[in-house]
Amino acid sequence: MSILKGKRCFHLQLVSFRRVKNFSNMSVTFALTQGYMVSIKDSSKDRYVTISCDRGGVYRKRLKTGENMRQRKMASRLTNCPFEVVGKKDDDLWALSIKNGEHNHEPSRDISDHPSCRRFNEEEVVLIREMTATGKRPRQILKALRQRNPNLVSDSRNVYNVKAKIRREILSGKMMESSSSSMNGATTVTSSQPAVPNCVATTASSSQVYVDSKSVNDTRALVAELCRHFYTLGWVSGTGVQKERMVPEDMYVLSADGFILSTPPLKPYPHKLPKCTDCAPLFMKAFEMCNAGAVIHSHGMESCLVTMIQPFSKEFRITHMEMIKGIQGHGYYDELVVPIIENTAHEGELTESLTEAITAYPKTTAVLVRNHGVYIWGDSWISAKTQAECYHYLFDAAIKLHQLGLDWSTPSHGPIRNVNGVWGFGVNMSRGLKAGSLGLDYMIEPSQRCILLDIEGTTTPISFVTDVLFPYAHENVGKHLATAYDSEETQDDINLLRSQIQDDLEQGVVGAVPIPPDYVGKELVISSLVANVEAMIRADRKVTALKQLQGHIWRTGFQSNELVGFVFDDVPEALERWHSSGIKVYIYSSSSREAQQLLFGNSNYGDLRKYLCGFFDTTVGNKKESHSYFEILQSVGADKPADMVFVTDVYQEAVAARAAGLEVMISMRPGNGPLPGNHGFRTIESLLEI
């Protein structure tokens, strides 16, 4: 048999097969050796099967007319390829014949280019579901899959797609075939385990079979167990339902739209009639808007009192506390911000304000309700429970710091500062309250101005970055990847680079080369990654994938004392002066947040991080785009844009920040680039001028 490939012809001996599966497997295997992928296009049992190229056909619009017609975000990969091979059954044998042996496109250099090669089989889907239920992240799931199948070409994006498909099918009342149920739990909104105590809601199929399934029964038991645990912590007491005595049968089961599918049985006096929680709409809103797998609603005393200390504040802010690391997306040096909404007489009336808070703070995993409690969520019951424990610890710490007259919102947690002879926090409030053990009535003034600093050319010479940090990363990238290749962190770096490089290849970026799949061996993968990283460094690319990897390489250098951060002589004095005046200082650089913390934590003047309230990198947006500064303003809670002063050496960044309403100053340091004439910005040669 001959199969044409462009203008070349590959020969395959014409054979017959006893089973159609053998015929289709041979076709796929042979096509892959030539750089193509084929699949079954049409078949009739025991009669024929037609196999065609996976790029055959053309893209069809789902909606034919109207403004809402679906638009593709990128060009279709379909080329209407005419290649077709037909197998026909004759006397219990399947004979192969060529209908059209020519492809109208070039072969792929990487089999992962073919979507069908990245699909998971039934066993792999089951494993994804089971690991998702235990709170494992996609990259952890992918690592387990590759341990089972070293030739797997799927990546973390494919895992995300399967997780999304599972969630969609659950919401639509279906279950994926050959998939087990995951567990989500107490006081929660869940994606597939609908067990609901008086303050618990879930989404589920309306099928009675599913309601009675083992997965639901297991979840009921888990919720009851966690309710007993939360009762001992003081989170769920006094609600009218005896949480410490709950059993699995006491749970409600709700559908995705809030419809009750199953109710608890009646109990004799003195038990009250069962009543589904008024929190259900709020749980569903967190599930819908935040893709939550579990939500915990707590009446813990600390979550109530912490909102009363500052009765007009719309946010709870705290920084430089160890337990902040337990909150999703946060580290020790970050500032944790939790929105506060006002309480209402009926809990269901909080839905609108909760929605507004989640919209205004898209990265938050909690919302405080003044004089009431807190809602906390995560992607699984384990994540929600862990974060709830950390949030309650931080609320309790803030209360105790306040009782000692200390300000929990500043890095040093020093005395609550005196503003015009009056003690107060640096937060936006408008009237006084009793200052804990201080015993003083005081008025809180509006929040003080804050300062946002660039690094290169502002706090640190450009030459330190170009002559020290970049060469170090360039020289050690291969060594770093080889040493830490199998670690979860490095695999995350590699996946991020793969995504960036794929975009670069599609856009024709100079220096971008394809990354082979993992099954070819890590040596070839590392070699191609090094080539791409070196090209990015030479071009001074400001992309997150590069900056994240560089940060991890530099961390090794700082930890081994091969690197020491460098700042200008005026920087420590300026930071200390601003800090003593109650002015909050933040860093915004194209370097990763970790790299920023390494530089200031290991500087030629020692650890300067105690003067800094937070770090921002390009994950909030490009520094030359105004929306990035709007994002930062929202994150730090500035009352108005003019309350923030931004210092940079880059004219385009200054223009973007000013467009967002910030006050901007341009740093004139030795080695900085020239500015255009009549640029219109104030210039400074030292931070002490501010």
Describe this structure in words.
Residues 1-407 are annotated as: Methylthioribulose-1-phosphate dehydratase. The chain has 690 residues and is α/β, with parallel strands linked by helices. Helix content is 35%, strand content 14%. The protein is built from 18 helices and 22 strands. It has helices spanning 20-33, 122-133, 138-148, 156-171, 208-211, 214-233, 280-290, 301-305, 351-360, 381-403, 462-483, 488-507, 522-538, 544-559, 570-580, 593-601, 626-636, 651-659, and strands at 2-5, 8-11, 16-17, 38-44, 48-53, 84-90, 93-100, 253-254, 260-262, 294-298, 315-319, 335-341, 366-369, 373-378, 418-419, 422-423, 450-453, 585-588, 614-616, 644-648, 663-667, 682-684. The strands form 6 sheets. It has a 6-stranded parallel β-sheet, with helices on both faces.
Q: Sheet with the most strands?
A: 6 strands, parallel
Q: In angstroms, what separates the terminal alpha carbons?
A: 80 Å
Strand content: 5-15%
Strand tally is 22
Q: How are the strands of the biggest sheet laid out side by side?
A: 19-18-17-20-21-22
What is the helix tally? Answer: 18
| Oligomeric status | single chain
Rg over alpha carbons: 30 Å
| Residue windows where pLDDT falls under 50 for at least 5 positions | 1-14, 62-68, 172-206, 418-447
- Briefly note the structural class of the backbone: alpha/beta
